[in-house]
Amino acid sequence: MTRRITWTLLALTSVLLVLAVVPLAVSMTARERVAFRDEQRAATRSIAAAAEEHLSDGKPPTGMRRELETAARAGDCAAVYDAAARPVASTPCTAAQGEEAEELVEDVLAGHEPEPPEDEGRLLAAEPAGEVRRPAGAVVLARSSDPLDTRVATIWAWSAAIGAAGLAASVLLSVRLARWVAGPLSALDVSARRLGEGALDARADVDGGPPEVRRLATTFNTMAARTEALVHGHRAVIADVSHQLRTPLAALRLRLDVLGTGAEGDTAVELDAAQEEIARLSRLVDGLLAVARAEQATPRPTTVRVGEVVAERVAAWSPVAEERGVRLRTSEGPALTAALGSGHVEQILDNLIANALEAVPDGGKVTVGHRLVGESARVWVRDDGPGMTDEAKAVAFRRFGNPEARGTGLGLAIVHRLVTVNGGAVRLEDTLGGGLTVVMDLPLWAGEP
Q1: Which of 25, 166, 225, 355 could form a disulfide with 159 if both were Cys (CB 3.0 to 4.6 A apart)?
Q2: Sign of the torsion formed by the C-alpha atoms of 16, 17, 21 and 26
Q3: Helical H runs in 209-265?
Q4: Residue 20 contacts by C-beta under 8 Å, 6 or more apart in sequence?
Q5: Strands 436-443, 376-383: parallel, antiparallel or unpaired by DSSP?
Q6: Tens digits of per-residue pLDDT, 22-73?
């Protein structure tokens, strides 16, 4: 944003400076040229007036020669011609004589308005000596254009300096303005990113920037504070529930163990059934707490070597699979690095492999694999068990969504929450030939091809 604001203001200032400075410089240049021509014509007319007294009235050429000397001291070259276009007098320099000067004299003697040309850095001017219609002669004055060029160059130099100063001031102003506007927004963006990554104490600075940005930062801080209080409150509830439920369950299991020590017959059977229900209730409590923790997860992404984690979890579950007569294996895949919260991939695979081993009968097969699909790391767990109906798959990711689940019915809910909170996606598909396949698309780590 800082660059966009700066470049926009610079472009606007540049256009305004061009539209203001260039026309002004052009106008001043034209005025200087007109003033220079007027001064040259005035000097020419002074010589022409003195020449008329000599050519028309027959007076001595003293005044005419004095004017020519004055022109020579000023650095001009002048020549006086009679009615027959013959040179009568001139300054020591001969720049006012030649073909171009003679053409001007002929135009003047014919009563025409000449168009003086510029000859090798000199400007020529011609005036009639006497009446315009019947001149007694003509005067040609050549003046160097160096003073005019110097004045024009000075005008354009000052114009360029003014434009550069205006552009420099615009740069300073635009940079300060851009930082004043974009700086607080960038800080707010960093705070929002930190909050999204799990830093619940992240707050934005409310002291800088425009009033609208300060109000936005204040609103963000209020939202962050409420979110932090809500999350901490939920975590406290989970901790309390974990303590308050597990302790009575452990005590109840201990009492049942004591009662079952000397029990026989139907009493022993009932006590064993009660122990199984206590164990099931313990697993249910653990599952509910796991779902609650997953729903409150605000992960900070870390690098996860997908292939290494898959191989590690398959190796960890292999003894359980062998005990149940199930073939658990992994398919080879590329080396991929995903961006997920610490330990989330392990927890996801543990739940999926546990569900698959529960569903697959003896002699069945469970396969875990991964590969690159677009900009995601695709991981799947495929089994050849009984599969799921379309109705069951539609609600499988909800708590206790699958009424036919052999476990607590919370494993897929935990998986769905952990995958989606990390920016991924998960879905259920039918395995070719029968069974269920859980497919997950996990975000790649930044820079992963």
Answers
A1: 25
A2: negative
A3: 211-259
A4: none
A5: antiparallel
A6: 888 899 999 998 898 889 889 888 988 888 888 887 788 888 889 888 888 8
